[in-house]
């Protein structure tokens, strides 16, 4: 009888231990909230990481929300409403310039070029000189799309504030509609909007700002320095999942990628998704590694300086931590 009781007690202890380990510790997925600056096919590797279960493989329970705009995304990050932001690296510099005691650190790059295209209303042979004297429907002042656009225009001898009429008072979500309705002779658009405008015969893609402006840490996963210090294992797992997705995207066709990310773009035709992803793949917009290079960071500073948005140059080591990216590249194959 005593032996039977001992066996029963041992069985109860084993069951209780298993239950406790399942309720916490390594057995429980760690929650991470991402705020993306917008929903865009430009961020295809992020949706691949979610759809293919790469975050889950790393033991993370990721919740994605669209925070609509760089300022709102950064406010959500700084307030603790989200843990990780997917936004342009320039936002971390803006926070740094304001003297933040808890700076925002870039730890995993997702896109490495500008994602916009120059769309002309009229067909015909294109020359940058045609922009002089035109009405140009641009992007928000201080944002990376507009700064990369102005940087490109200056490279071609065009002063964006003197040589053309620059419109910047249209909300991001309404830029395409404004162009289609007749505003501007040229417009700067992301995909899939550029492909949609072409398909509808309302405009023609004539140049890529991504190709023209060079390598940039354009869209980056970042978090507060305090979060990084408190949860380094979470940041590492997150970066591992991002790199898995990057490798997957590099190894698959635009068609395969489009099929995978389609649930995030239910209102977009498959042929438009394929066309958009193909353009981004061909110009190397999707980063092959989560690490940010010093050259691309310095190019970002040049772009911001040219736009008059940089108070002082910030060394890459101040706001970039590549240690997680380096470990991911060495461990994920």
TrEMBL record:
Q: Which residues does UniProt call coiled coil? A: none
- Tell me the keywords, alphabetical order: Signal
User: Which protein are we looking at?
Assistant: ABC transporter substrate-binding protein
What family, per the record?
Answer: Belongs to the bacterial solute-binding protein SsuA/TauA family.
Annotated signal sequence is: 1-29
Annotated localization: Periplasm
Q: Give the source species.
A: Paenibacillus mellifer
Give me the Gene Ontology terms describing cellular component.
periplasmic space
Task: Quote any Pfam family the record assigns.
Answer: NMT1_2
